[in-house]
Specification:
Helices cover 26% and strands 20% of the residues. The protein is built from ten helices and 17 strands.
Length: 364
Amino acid sequence: MRSSSGRNSGNNGGSRGGNSGGRGNYRGAGNSRDDRQGGGNPRRPRPEERSYDVGGPSDGPRKGRGAAARGGAKGGPKQSPQRGGGRTAPARSREYDARAEERNRERYANKPQVKTPKTFPGAEQEGERLQKVLARAGMGSRRACEELIEQARVEVNGEIVLEQGMRVDPEKDEIKVDGLTVATQSHIFFALNKPAGVVSTMEDPDGRQCLGDYVTNRETRLFHVGRLDTETEGIILLTNHGELAHRLTHPKYGVKKTYLAAITGPLPREVGRRLKDGIQLEDGYARADHFRVVEQIGKNYLVEVTLHEGRKHIVRRMLAEAGFPVEKLVRTAFGPIALGDQKSGWLRRLTNTEVGMLMKEVGM
């Protein structure tokens, strides 16, 4: 039990603190309670009096609670990065990184190499999967090409494919879909609606507009299939497939070309029969495979002429020899490829089906 003198002494100490700076603090400096608890030993510092060694190195011994306080332990302040000050982790030397890398290499040096399993049967074989080749050739997605194989519509080198996963060589194997050859190699085919005044050459030394002006941004060299005279409009094919171009223009294969010609009448009925029977020209007979009148407005006639010959100005010379000079001439079809509604001066890429039709036309 505390004596009354002790309580009076505490009250007096508090009064003195209040007289000097306001109301006295029970734990203020000079409090007799701290002295009695310590029994002469140094008292524990209060939180506001503690110091933490969060700064840089100092000359004297470090104070405070050490790493626990610096690391943000319970009861200690958390460190925050400060610009221009504060303790940072020392950078690792290059020698340390080199040794660590060498240890990692030694650790995995003697381990056996793991080989990934084959994802499909026959992967060790050469060539590409058939459905992948068909998809790249424009026959549809891989799933759609697999359905073509399931429907027995695909043949390789003359044999119908009935199983999935067959591997082929696009450079050597002949692949057909529904009887049409698939252009699996790096061949390209274009159809141009040539305007009047364009020369049918890829380069013109006189600087005139030519076919090469329409394909200047192509990486591969293209050449034209046959010719059209400068004033004749219509479809002309461009490709880098030499064998196909040769066959399309060779008289042996008889690829038909169709023209529309504007002439002035009157036009007797026997003109068509005369053209089909053959007209004598300076370089031999020329025969039309088909002739018909498409339109007549007064004396102006629009006639269609189909023939398989490719001699120079053949249509103009035939009609002129028959007594009807051509005023305007347009080629509307080259074999199975029709001009359609393609605008003058426009270049379009042939579809894979169209290419297959051309190859079938010449037995490829």
